[in-house]
Amino acid sequence: MTERALRSLDGRVIAVAGASGNLGPTVVHRLAGAGATLSLAGRRAAEVERLAGAIDGPADATAVDLLDDAATRAWADDLARRHGHVDGLVHLVGGWRGGTPIEEAPLEDWGWLEQLLVRTVQHTTRAFLPHLLASGRGRVVGISAGQAQAPTHTNAAYAAAKAAADAWLLAVADRVRGSGTTANLVVVGAIVTPAMRAEDPGRDFTTFTPAEEIAEAVAYLSADAAAAMNGQRLTLRGAA
Ligand SMILES: NC(=O)c1ccc[n+]([C@@H]2O[C@H](COP(=O)([O-])OP(=O)(O)OC[C@H]3O[C@@H](n4cnc5c(N)ncnc54)[C@H](OP(=O)(O)O)[C@@H]3O)[C@@H](O)[C@H]2O)c1
């Protein structure tokens, strides 16, 4: 019998918030391929369950509204209780409103985006931080957008929300500094997924960030190889 080589995420339990969206499937398959045990969360139970069932490796699915603080904490605490440790949190909850000049854009968009892009980061990081610190090698990975640092006038609310999420995650990095746990950001442009390419094979996606490259970055930041990296923005927009 041949022994399987140790993979970079073997033995790690990683929670993925917003797993069943555009980027989620590519990221979770990459993390599972590196040996991680995954816990996938989203609001739609059927979607996260279907994704967990398609993963080649240990994975469970939890239907949780990440705007519900108590439910988010229950997800984190239950995961830690079942496995004895939680080693990673990957935040993938996304969504967009915009495309209208500042003076015309409805301010209601800000409220919606703040909840989706900032409050879910706040709830998940606060719920998982005690467990990630206890792990001693915890990892937090968030996905930022170029807009957070270079806003355009038709994306003011979106850019402001992503910038606020960045600041929160960089504050988390400050909180965990020196503990063995880290928090980092992957900065991306518009994402192209395998499904998008399959749906529109003739389209030019050269200015997009490929989901596969983002998944590589998330796997890297989640592993021991990135133990010395904390509070950084890993930018995958060079080709745009
Ligand atoms: N897509 C892009 O082009 C792009 C560009 C720049 C940056 N980003 C960033 O990349 C990351 C991933 O983006 P994405 O496009 O993959 O995101 P997405 O598909 O829009 O959202 C991911 C998932 O989040 C879940 N979600 C939303 N609200 C939730 C809540 N209250 N509780 C629990 N789950 C919730 C949704 O699942 P349910 O419906 O099941 O809840 C959704 O499938 C995000 O941080 C995004 O801001 C994306």
List keywords for this structure.
single chain, 240 residues, Rossmann fold, seven-stranded parallel sheet, 9 strands, 42% helix, 17% strand, binds NADP nicotinamide-adenine-dinucleotide phosphate
What percentage of the residues does DSSP assign to strands (E)? Answer: 15-25%
User: Could you report the average pLDDT, rounded to the nearest whole number?
Assistant: 96
CATH architecture: 3-Layer(aba) Sandwich
Which cofactor or ligand species appear? NADP nicotinamide-adenine-dinucleotide phosphate
Provide the CATH top-level class.
Answer: Alpha Beta
**Remind me, CATH topology?**
Rossmann fold
Structural class: alpha/beta
Tell me, what's the shape? globular
Q: What is the β-strand count?
A: 9
How many discrete structural domains? 1
Tally the helices. Answer: 7
What is the radius of gyration? 17 Å
Order of helices and strands: EHEHEHEHEHEEHEHE
CATH superfamily, please?
A: NAD(P)-binding Rossmann-like Domain
Termini gap: 47 Å
Helix content: 40-55%
Report on the biggest sheet: 7 strands, parallel
Order of strands, main sheet, comes to 3-2-1-4-5-6-9
Poorly predicted regions are none
Quick overview of this protein structure:
The protein is an alpha/beta fold and 240 residues long. Helices cover 42% and strands 17% of the residues. The longest helix is centred in the middle third of the chain and has 28 residues, at 108-135.
